């Protein structure tokens, strides 16, 4: 290309020099090969794994399992940021991150050493006291069924006392209104 540009720029170039430059340029052009398209790498699953957070805070997990998770998370972020990462590398980083997250181990609560009493029984609490004896299970009293059937000879609650009180309230209220109306008519 440079030689062809030099011939083109030379005002004193002969036709033979122009023809040679053109032939060399055509030969170089035909020798060009198309660069294969870069393979498409799908990073969506890796991104989803990176953005998925553990169920609990760091303090809830053992140091070893949290460190393994953090290492896998950093590696996954590095692969995600790498524009030249292959699909194989992306898939492997995602798998390692998912495995590390699934491998997070909860810290087990620490209980003080419980010593048995003189009879060889271990107490239920760390204070050294014996556990309270188990109470026998007492069956519950049967509840009144919703269909108002009688239990143990008792009559079902029908709401009669409520209805009677309401009835008396209406009667007394009506009577008061009638009396007030009669007094008013006599005054007029």
Describe the structure.
The protein is mostly helical. It is 51% helix and 0% strand. The chain has 6 helices and no strands. Helix 4 (63-81) runs antiparallel to helix 5. The longest helix is centred in the C-terminal third of the chain and has 28 residues, at 160-187. It is elongated and about 140 Å long.
Principal-axis shape equals: elongated
Number of helices: 6
Q: Report the average pLDDT across residues.
A: 79
Outline the low-pLDDT stretches.
none
How many β-strand runs? Answer: 0
**Broad structural category:** mainly alpha
Q: What is the H/E order? A: HHHHHH
* Helix content range: 40-55%
Write the layout of secondary structure elements.
Elements: H1 2-9, H2 15-31, H3 44-51, H4 63-81, H5 87-102, H6 160-187
Helix pairs in contact: 1-2, 3-5, 4-5
């Amino acid at each position: 290309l440079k030689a062809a540009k030099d011939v083109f720029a030379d005002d004193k170039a002969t036709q033979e020099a122009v023809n040679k430059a053109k032939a060399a340029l055509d030969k170089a052009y035909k020798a060009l090969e198309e660069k294969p398209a870069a393979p498409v790498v799908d990073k969506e699953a890796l991104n989803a794994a990176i953005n998925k957070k553990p169920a609990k805070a760091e303090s809830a997990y053992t140091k070893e399992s949290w460190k393994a998770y953090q290492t896998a998370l950093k590696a996954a972020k590095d692969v995600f940021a790498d524009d030249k990462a292959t699909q194989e590398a992306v898939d492997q980083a995602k798998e390692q991150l998912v495995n590390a997250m699934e491998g997070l181990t909860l810290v087990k609560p620490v209980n003080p050493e419980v010593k048995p009493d003189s009879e060889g029984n271990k107490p239920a609490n760390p204070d050294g006291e014996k556990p309270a004896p188990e109470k026998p299970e007492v069956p519950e009293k049967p509840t009144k069924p919703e269909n108002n059937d009688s239990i143990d000879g008792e009559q079902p609650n029908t709401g009669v006392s409520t209805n009677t009180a309401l009835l008396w309230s209406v009667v007394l209220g009506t009577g008061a209104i009638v009396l007030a109306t009669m007094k008013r008519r006599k005054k007029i």
